[in-house]
Amino acid sequence: MKFIYSRYTRTLQSSFVSRIAFVIFFSALILSAQPVFAQTTAQVPGVSPHALLYVTNSKAAIASLRTHINSMDIIAPQIYAAKEDGTLLGEPSTEVLKIAHNAGAQVMPLIINQNFSQSGMHNFLMNTIAQDNLIAALIAEAKDKGYLGFQYDFEHMQASDKDLYSVFVAKSVPQFHAAGLQLSVAMAPRHSDNPADYGDGSWDNWTGTFDYHAIGAVADFVSVMAYDDSRSVGPVASIPFVQTVLGYTLARIPAEKVSLGVPTYAWIWRDKTSTIDHVRGYPAVAEVLKSKSYIKKGWSDELGVSFVTYFRGNKKFTAWYEDQKSFQRKIALVTENKLYGFSAWALGLEDPKVWDVMLTLRAPQYGLAER
Fold this sequence. Notes:
Elements: H1 16-30, E1 50-55, H2 59-68, E2 74-82, E3 88-89, H3 94-103, E4 106-107, E5 110-113, H4 118-125, H5 128-145, E6 149-152, H6 162-178, E7 182-187, H7 202-205, H8 212-218, E8 221-224, H9 239-250, E9 258-263, E10 265-270, E11 275-281, H10 282-291, E12 296-300, E13 305-312, E14 315-321, H11 324-336, E15 341-345, H12 354-360
Parallel strand pairs: 1-2, 1-15, 2-4, 2-5, 5-6, 6-7, 7-8, 8-9, 9-15
Antiparallel strand pairs: 2-3, 10-11, 10-14, 12-13, 13-14
Helix pairs in contact: 11-12
């Protein structure tokens, strides 16, 4: 099975055709938001750990944002995309930015390659004029809206474009800094420099593009997506996998620049085919647990993730899901390693009890970043 990655689908599809259909759909959704009021002036954060939460325009995401905004210091909406000629697309949600503004939280939106087009991104990286146009547009937009800066979330890039992408990031950073803005980069999880250590399609089309040394040296911080394990037979992000990714990362990037990517969703495996059938947030899994119709449930201490096995009709499924306990195990890695913070994908998918963990990070011994 090919393991195909996307922050916007967080779904593993059996072919690139299926995945591209998903990303086109979601890209259309993120570009449909409304204009927004000006935000507060960006400030460089100084205390770890920083809580960065990714937010979509879904009702569940906005409801969670409104309820828990005081536990976050950076909000990262998924709203912008770049065309291959450097044109900036997208408008932020007035509601999302108003909630953040009223609470004093910083906003650092994501910018993706339109439709996650691989050929489009390659053409963009070969075109310095397109790059200059995009950088100028991003800076103007950030200054106008009062953003902290932007996070580059360019994905589905071919490994052969690694150096081109690193040069583009290095070119962008000083221009952002000159404007008083920050630039962070979302990076696919690497745990080895050997392409054979990854699932089919992962290295050539996703992971191999990210030069941790080069990008880590220039970006203000990086959000390492320590999930969507390409060789997993269960969890989205087992503790052994996360630890391996973190070890690789910290050998190349200072801890104070590393934001650990943490998932809040579940992979639902069909037992008969041993393939991922669908992806769900914790609320869907909670319905299974509440119904008491499951066959078995439990916790894997070795993997650091909970699971539940159940039937839907005559089909047997096992859900490996992120809950308070697994979230706490991952956040412990943030505090133990004195990382910049964590980046959680995504609001509205989480176990409500993870907010209890977030509250403990406000305690003096941890000192979650103040706004």
